[in-house]
Write a structure and sequence with these properties.
Layout: H1 3-9, E1 23-28, E2 46-51, E3 57-61, H2 71-81, E4 86-89, H3 94-102, E5 106-109, H4 115-123, E6 128-129
Parallel strand pairs: 1-4, 4-5
Antiparallel strand pairs: 1-2, 2-3, 5-6
Helix pairs in contact: 2-3
């Protein structure tokens, strides 16, 4: 199913119509649910793809974290390829923001939290939705 169609099916973050599990991507400074949510989307060392129903996850090393330029777009493409419905991070630059927004992936702010705590807050609709990007290139 296309991301935009999935986004339209969602009636509140953390749940989807039809009861299917929701996959979210969390930027993290480590490889498990006890890691901190990384505040830099494109420069985060790891992406954790988490199933919000059972908290199973996959830790993925962010290959674009050390790119000189274009890290945001490369990171965003990686997110799209994972089939997630939402991203939980601290801040996100304009290029990545536009790419994710274009395909219907929602973004939420959870800097300063543990990944597990951020997932619980997401499920309980307690995270702030990111509705505008941060400045370009602010996290090099």
């Amino acid at each position: 199913m296309h991301h935009q169609e999935m986004s339209q099916m969602r009636y509140s973050h953390g749940k989807s119509v039809g009861g299917g599990d929701v996959k979210v991507l969390v930027t993290a400074d480590g490889e498990n649910l006890e890691a901190n949510v990384d505040t830099k989307f494109a420069r985060a060392p790891y992406f954790l793809v988490v199933d919000t129903e059972n908290l199973s996850f996959e830790a993925i090393k962010n290959e674009s974290a050390n790119e000189f330029g274009g890290a945001g777009v490369k990171a965003a493409q990686s997110v799209i390829n994972r089939g997630v419905e939402a991203v939980i991070t601290g801040n996100i630059g304009p290029n990545a923001y536009q790419v994710l927004r274009r395909v219907g992936i929602k973004m939420f702010r959870a800097g300063g939290k543990k990944v597990k705590e951020a997932i619980e807050d997401f499920k309980n609709n307690k995270l702030e939705e990111i509705v505008s990007p941060g400045p370009r290139g602010m996290f090099k």
